[in-house]
């Protein structure tokens, strides 16, 4: 009889993981349950080409009773795991990946759970948490709200798919089942379906976790999968269809649990915005296979998918029912007119099962902008529905039955896709109605008409619209004479004279609404609202708020305010917003009027402001409210002037779109940048976008020295490597996994390169590290013994003007440096934060310095530039001259003139 000495056997395939392997093994050795007493580790070398074998041999010699090391010809992860299974003797088996790791208490916690529930289940799963290139829980984390047993016949949408984070009874659960040799994708899920379906139950334990490495370089099998042909057609035939047919034969139907696992895997092959290149020659076969798979998937399972949007779900349902590729020209479903008992007509959308899935009277319109601008009522929004668009109209009608038509336009950034093809385009509309025409109406309605049938539309207001969806009694003021709100019950805008009595009546209704909804501090919010409304009725001066970063000034907002203060305008009061703890706060007190960030005075002035002039445009940065912003948004009447932190070179329209940011002035510095915004998907026009240059460029005069020579190292940040901004500390918390990233390793390697350090010192150069503000919390990770760390309080303009050479990656700071015609190098070992080739700027054809991709090339290029006294070549000087329309110190003047036109 087989001796079962260990509680756990962990099978670990090894291939090309020398950088991570020790961390994975050590996480087992350090288990609190006791590694030597309870854990067997089986290392299976799948003919790894790196130094992994030496690591395996060292550990197996150190723990000969616990660690088995074996090697095989390269046959893939499935065969490697199967090899390990044959050597396993533990009661439970696990398949920890060699680039991941367990928490130290994982096996102890798992064993405690199995001791309590082991007779009822063969499998227990723990949460999978990303680290390194991505942070946070896996998207299937929702099943881990509590530790419990899940019955998959009752909860078929709670499934397990990853073998590394599951622990399986080796004889009862795994038994004779094995991983499918040669299956490149979905091998874990395929095996786990069969194991879970034995008892139709499994356990979830939420008191420990599996740490799953998302490699920054994108070198894991999963990360590079979408570029592989095997990810598609072979995956459909060898796994999805095979598994569906197996269970259909076993039961006469496919259990919902199996359907959910298959549909979860399928959805990722469907939702892409671009058709994968590897699929283009076989698209017809691809769609044919999808339709074959969908015949086994119930529609409620399709609609229940969490990562398909509403339109994708219904397009997939249509494909299932029609057994053909979704055709956007034919729409989703049929329509049917319904006459109700009161004589009103409604247009119903009926699916293939004769179920109502949408209707005209229930359809709301999304409103992105709703404001008074230049004497016009402006309403900008879009229609999203399953209703046919061919005969769809949106218009506004007033009490006199006069009709106002909008300008219609598409919303390309909101398009919905299946396998690279557009399946839905939102119908956009923009109304600009002279307020003089409608001011004597008591109400106006937005009408949605489809196939000749009309209905008043309810409106849903987005964060960028001044009316609030969370505060139904909110209202905006026109010309200090009229108040406009939206009545969701009657589905209409209501217009009233803006008398003190009407104002107080509406404000008391708002207070009552907040009290009913149990809004915290509703009394204080109400008092503040009434005070702001009262002051605005009698305000004499314009109020302009300037802001750079929360904790640092010294960017274009400070430069511009310094210029404006010099003009001594009497009708404007200027304030600079900054955290009181910032060193710049004390500095600015001598000549500015700084206001503490998120102080009561900041909030007060924010609601009274006529202009918000900022280099930042994210609401969580520039607006001072935390959790209460929806109760004040209708009070905000400022015009937003976006100064930018730098020059836009990539397509950032997903972030900087007009119907979200609503800038009244969008400052640009280069003709190509200007053209990319006005001609792109940002929805801004030449009315808002102006070519002026950044105010901070006024400071850029070369003060570099031939005595105190400086090499500036200024990389930008990587959003996925650091923690989210915390409102609690007004900063980003430290990330434990940052130092494991390729980004950190590359820059830390360069900052400590002995060749660079030696040559720089010998030739009188100082190496200065200027980290991006978003990674300053990670400075403790870097070895900075051989470099000077630029003080956070030192101005960028001071740093840049003193620099002789700039080394960066994708930071737009190189535009400032190029402005002074000084040399630079681009270190492109990765692709940065965004798709850096999607914009107008080509580093190869337009960059102001050489591009290097390796550490060795970077070192060599630095030495070459130092040998040539850090002079920008003629080639790059000409590029600078062609790029900038202005290279003077009059940028603040040009920006101020545009602000005064608003």
From TrEMBL:
A Pfam family that the UniProt record links to this protein:
Glyphos_transf
Alphabetized UniProt keyword annotations: Transferase
Instruction: Kindly give the CDD domains that the UniProt entry links to this protein.
Output: Glyco_tranf_GTA_type (cd00761)
Cellular component terms, GO, for this chain's entry?
A: membrane
Pinpoint the Glycosyltransferase 2-like domain residues.
Answer: 9-156
Please tell me whether the keyword Oxidoreductase is annotated for this protein.
no
Its protein name is Glycosyltransferase
